[in-house]
Design goal:
Length: 364
């Protein structure tokens, strides 16, 4: 949990720049370029890189390096099995880990990672990395490097830990955008898809346009009396107005609206679009999720047999009490299992779990 009292007024100003930069684009390379200077200043590092890793069905990776090139990462496939930080950060998502926490200096200097950095430059005198959950099956490993012998202090660790949720949200936003588009004609192409339900909105009350299927869903979901004069349902308008007024910290975990209807879950994902020449716009992505959803195979692979049973109960729209009764366990045991399940799958909540499973079954 980020605690402002751990930082000076100047450091908090730098952090505010970081969070602003992280939401400045929906392109991962552009986000990294925009946030590079502020991130390095806040974490006190010399360079950084992001490795996007797909964990299912098999592990693969792709590096994004803002600023100048880091040659050792271009040859990462040859040293991946010798990366002493990879397994520790995979085991503890969201927890920054430094080389000094795992190895003595002598042990570190014997690693292939360090030896190759001496050959290729820049030197990796110290490394700190953290795993950033993005969505089930996709994570980001964010690494910071120091090129002089000056170990990362506890404050750098705290600074990075306090940004993990924003990094996760930013990268997830980029992935949602990437999934929706094959280029700059995102919204026009979506508009032509019969199964695409979205609204492009310019706060406070201007609808830029909406897809025809969005109109179909809203007419099915809401009565005329539940629609605001602007054209949005009151409940969605209220949520969007609140989000617009929030800072980036307050928005975390609040960009997904879910309504549990007898026919299934009705969801709206609120996505702030990058600033252009005009006012900032938002995309509202609408979807319907049936109560009975299959649990994807790669998610099952990350869970124990009991956790799979509980996850399937959630997907059947069962309450914790119903799951507990079916499995002959206590409500508290169900809650404990759900916390572990959400952590293992990199989701924020029950609603986010449902959304991610439905997204994988049929992209929104």
């Amino acid at each position: 949990m980020f605690n402002p009292t751990d930082f000076s007024a100047r450091e908090l100003m730098v952090r505010e720049r970081v969070t602003g930069d992280l939401y400045s684009s929906l392109s991962i390379p552009r986000v990294l370029e925009a946030s590079r200077a502020s991130l390095l200043e806040f974490v006190q590092a010399d360079s950084l890189a992001l490795c996007l890793m797909r964990t299912a069905p098999t592990l693969d990776f792709r590096w994004h390096v803002p600023g100048y090139a880091i040659p050792i990462l271009e040859d990462y496939a040859g040293i991946a099995e010798h990366d002493f930080l990879r397994d520790p950060i995979l085991a503890k998502p969201g927890v920054p880990i430094c080389d000094t926490q795992l190895l003595t200096r002598t042990e570190y200097e014997r690693t292939l990672v360090y030896q190759r950095s001496l050959e290729l430059a820049p030197r990796f005198e110290h490394i700190m990395a953290a795993l950033v959950p993005i969505r089930p099956g996709l994570v980001g490993a964010l690494a910071f490097y120091r090129h002089e012998r000056h170990p990362f202090e506890a404050k750098s660790n705290t600074a990075l830990a306090g940004l993990i949720q924003h990094l996760s949200q930013s990268l997830a936003n980029c992935q949602v955008y990437q999934d929706m588009t094959a280029g700059a004609q995102l919204l026009k192409e979506l508009y032509l898809r019969k199964d695409s339900a979205f609204i492009l909105w310019e706060p406070p009350s201007h609808e830029v346009f909406r897809s025809s299927y969005a109109t179909t869903l809203l007419e099915r979901w809401f009565l005329p009396s539940e629609i605001d004069a602007s054209g949005l349902p009151h409940v969605l308008k209220a949520r969007l107005d609140a989000l617009v007024q929030m800072d980036s910290d307050a928005r975390l975990g609040k960009t997904l609206w879910v309504h549990n209807h007898p026919d299934g879950y009705r969801t709206c994902r609120f996505l702030e679009l990058p600033a252009g020449d005009g006012p900032r716009q938002w995309a509202l992505l609408l979807s319907e999720i049936p109560h009975s959803i299959p649990l994807p195979a790669h998610m099952q692979g990350a869970l124990t047999a009991r956790q799979i049973d509980i996850a399937k109960g959630v997907l059947r729209n069962w309450s914790n009490g119903q799951i507990a009764e079916d499995l002959n366990i206590s409500d508290q045991t169900v809650k404990a299992h759900l916390r572990t399940i959400f952590k293992e799958l990199g989701v924020d909540s029950r609603a986010d779990f449902l959304y991610q499973v439905a997204h994988l079954s049929k992209p929104v």
